[in-house]
């Protein structure tokens, strides 16, 4: 049976790695061309978009924003910046009102410099940071710029030192680092207690499915697969109707044109990719239009079917 290209939003359960989910989908659909859109730690639950078939080529072009709900435990510092790591220190946390704690969280809103956890996938001199930690090597990670678009204090438990936050952020943001750094700012310690990702790359938890729910499905063209074109709704669209231009496109050649002659084009930024479709709304790939709006440059071309 033919495999439909597209994306599945998996609701990852605790204890599974992202690659575990990929392996399960490969087995269920009988195809090796499967990839995930970004690693979730085994103890993190929630939304994990999985790409199937030619959709794997479009992963980097999906919306990059992600939203999490996390619990932070104050008073404890660990080797991994979460509760799964060795406890390095314990320290009392201050008495804080909700407003006072929310004011401290202002330091994490907007564009900030963030040092990733040492136990992470960050490359250090060609090796993953967490592997260096396992070998007890000494090293330092450099701060990285990330954007915290929204950070909401949802709950504050003064007695137990636990706060719950909702964070919408750019790719590459570590909630564990927020937990660690908040503890330091409060002259205490902090680590991540639990974390759930409720949205990622344009997919939401409410539209996701558990791996266990897929195992009984026999139809490989089932409706739980989101077509690639639907996952790219955020990208501007250009419709090609002339067969000669389509032939040029499918052979990866530059197309010269008068933009006004095209059937449809939504507003676009010439520095960003544009989605190319035909009159039947079949996805042909992604390209770039030059600043003068006179040439179309193929970037990602799907094979004709």
Description of the structure:
This protein folds into 3 domains: 6-63 and 202-230, Pseudouridine synthase (2-Layer Sandwich), CATH 3.30.2350.10; 69-194, Pseudouridine synthase (2-Layer Sandwich); 235-301, Archaeosine Trna-guanine Transglycosylase, Chain: A, domain 4 (Roll), CATH 2.30.130. Helix content is 17%, strand content 34%. The protein has 7 helices and 18 strands. The protein has helices spanning 18-29, 98-105, 129-134, 175-185, 211-214, 228-231, 243-250; strands at residues 6-12, 34-36, 45-52, 66-74, 76-78, 87-90, 110-114, 123-124, 127-128, 144-157, 162-169, 190-200, 203-204, 237-240, 255-256, 274-278, 283-289, 295-301. 32% of the residues are buried.
Question: Which short descriptors sum up this protein?
Answer:
single chain; Archaeosine Trna-guanine Transglycosylase, Chain: A, domain 4; 305 residues; 3 domains; Pseudouridine synthase; five-stranded mixed beta sheet; nine-stranded mixed beta sheet; alpha+beta
Q: Please count the helical segments.
A: 7
Q: What is the count of β-strands? A: 18
- Gyration radius from CA atoms, angstroms: 23 Å
Alpha-beta content class: alpha+beta
As for the number of domains, it is 3
CATH architecture annotation of the largest domain? 2-Layer Sandwich
Terminal-residue CA separation: 16 Å
Helix content: 10-25%
Order of helices and strands: EHEEEEEHEEEHEEHEEHHEHEEEE
What can be said about the biggest beta sheet? Answer: 9 strands, mixed
CATH superfamily of the largest domain: Pseudouridine synthase
Strand content: 25-35%
Mean pLDDT: 89
Shape: elongated
CATH fold annotation of the largest domain: Pseudouridine synthase
The level 1 CATH classification of the largest domain is Alpha Beta
Uncertain segments are: none
């Amino acid at each position: 049976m033919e495999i439909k290209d597209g994306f599945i939003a998996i609701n990852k359960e605790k204890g599974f790695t992202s690659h575990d989910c990929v392996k399960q989908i490969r087995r269920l659909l009988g195809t090796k061309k499967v990839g995930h859109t970004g690693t979730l730690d085994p103890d993190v639950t929630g939304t994990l978009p999985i790409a199937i078939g030619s959709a794997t080529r479009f992963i980097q072009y999906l919306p990059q924003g992600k939203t999490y709900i996390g619990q932070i435990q104050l008073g404890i510092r660990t080797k991994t910046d979460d509760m799964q790591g060795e406890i390095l220190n314990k320290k009392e946390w201050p008495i804080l009102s909700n407003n006072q704690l929310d004011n401290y969280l202002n330091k994490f809103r907007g564009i900030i410099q963030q040092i990733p956890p040492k136990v992470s996938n960050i490359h250090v001199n060609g090796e993953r940071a967490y592997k260096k930690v396992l070998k007890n090597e000494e090293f330092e990670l450099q701060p990285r710029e990330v954007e915290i678009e929204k950070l909401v204090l949802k709950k504050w438990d003064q007695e137990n030192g636990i706060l719950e936050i909702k964070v919408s952020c750019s790719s590459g943001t570590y909630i564990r680092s927020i937990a660690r750094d908040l503890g330091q700012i409060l002259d205490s310690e902090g680590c991540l207690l639990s974390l759930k990702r409720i949205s990622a790359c344009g997919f939401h938890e409410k539209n996701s499915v558990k791996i266990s729910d897929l195992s009984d499905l026999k139809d490989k063209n089932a409706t739980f697969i989101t077509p690639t074109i639907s996952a790219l709704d955020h990208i501007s669209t250009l419709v090609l109707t002339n067969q000669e231009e389509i032939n040029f496109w499918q052979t990866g050649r530059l197309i010269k044109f008068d933009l006004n002659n095209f059937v449809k084009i939504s507003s676009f930024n010439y520095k960003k990719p544009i989605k190319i479709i035909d009159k039947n709304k079949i996805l042909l790939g992604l390209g770039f239009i030059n600043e003068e709006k006179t040439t179309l440059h193929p970037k990602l071309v799907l094979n004709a079917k």
